[in-house]
Amino acid sequence: MSESSPRGQYYMCSPECQNKSSSHSWLDNPFQVEGSKDFSGPYCTMVEVQWICRDSQRLRGVKHMLQKFRSLVSQLEGVDPRKMKHEEKLAFWINVHNVLVMHAFLVYGTPQNNMKRISLLLKAAYNVGGFTISVDMIQSSILGCRLPRPGQWLQSLFFPKTRFKARDARKAFAIEQPEPLLHFALCSGNHSDPAVRVYTPKRVFQELEAAKEEYIRTTFRMHKEQKILLPKIVDSYAKELGLCPAGLAEMIEHFIPNSLRKSVQKHRHGKLLKKIEWMPHNFNFRYLLSKELTK
Questions:
Q1: Nearest one of 105, 97, 20, 30 to 283, comparing CA atoms
Q2: What's the CA gap between 207 and 91, in Å, rounded?
Q3: Residues 6 or more apart from 76 whose CB is under 8 A from it?
Q4: pLDDT for res 125
Q5: β-strands 221-223, 131-134: how paired?
Q6: Backbone angles phi, psi at 14, to 5 degrees
Q7: What's the confidence (pLDDT) of residue 62?
Q8: By C-alpha distance, which of 106, 108, 127, 128 is closest to 116?
Q9: Do the Cβ atoms of 278 and 230 come closer than 8 Å?
Q10: 3-state secondary structure the chain
Q11: Helix 204-219 crosses helix 232-241 at what angle (to 10 degrees)?
Q12: Tens place of pLDDT for every residue, the chain, 295 residues?
């Protein structure tokens, strides 16, 4: 990705400081953290990035950090993912994906139009091991976990899934088998996306499980003890894992407060498919960052 004119400054606001004006706004904002910390868990301490604006004067204050960042990015050219083990590839590509997306926003700003924002991300790329690797390539061909996009049916016509050809050396960059937990780790700067964290090879599966638990715990809602509301990311995860509705409810039980656990248990053996409502993905711009990333 070209860095010839990076101009980015981001505004941060903690989600726990926001004014919650509508009692039903969580239907549009599944990360609206309020009330008991039994629900929100670590998400109530996250730092929220609401937008990224271009401001060359403020950028001077972090010039040394940007220089260090560019130096780290340039080192990717000397990395050979083909020599990595499965866990190493998982952690490496999750981190590269999330950094590349954020880097694109820092360089180009955040287009107000969601479709333009997605088009920008499709073009963003790094040189990894001497090869050009784009965001779409990481999602489709390397990790096999394509994230929700606005106008996805239309994009499938103009931006078909990236596939490596038979003799393409980049085929060896891909992970060995699909990993449904990636739905809770990859972030494209959308409001409904999971929080951004740094993943490590030695603990990547424990970290992915923790990310899943925190995401579900934060977004789960029960409407009048009759209907379960969950974001579409959980639906994608359940389908990829092959979870039946009863199995999904059983998994969720472990992540929610005791006060609601009995209500979920009552529905587990009933007509649960009619009891689950999938909240639409919110594509408005927003980042949640774990506090260790902002130190």
A1: 30
A2: 10
A3: 96, 126, 127, 128, 129
A4: 95
A5: unpaired
A6: -70, 135
A7: 72
A8: 108
A9: yes
A10: CCCCCCCCEEEEECHHHCCCCCCCHHHCCCCCCCCCHHHHHHHHHCEEEEEEECCHHHHHHHHHHHHHHHHHHHHHHHCCHHHCCHHHHHHHHHHHHHHHHHHHHHHHCCCCCHHHHHHHHHHCEEEECCEEEEHHHHHHHHCCCCCCCCCHHHHHHHCCCCCCCCCCHHHHHCCCCCCHHHHHCCCCCECCCCCECCCCHHHHHHHHHHHHHHHHHHHCEEECCCEEEEEHHHHHHHHHHCCCHHHHHHHHHCCCCHHHHHHHHHHHCCCHHHCEEEECCCCCECEEECHHHHC
A11: 130
A12: 644 333 333 333 333 334 333 333 433 334 544 433 444 566 777 888 887 766 666 667 677 888 888 899 999 999 999 999 999 999 999 999 999 999 998 888 887 777 788 778 878 999 999 999 999 899 989 999 988 877 654 455 555 556 677 778 889 999 999 999 999 999 999 989 999 999 999 999 999 999 999 999 888 887 766 677 889 999 999 999 998 877 887 888 787 767 666 666 665 555 554 578 888 888 888 888 877 776 6
Q: CA geometry: angle at 44 spanning 212 and 21, to 5°? A: 115
Which residues neighbour 233 within 8 Å (Cβ) at sequence distance 6 or greater? Answer: 148, 183, 184, 192, 193, 194, 215, 281
Minimal CA–CA distance to 163: which of 191, 144, 184, 150? 144
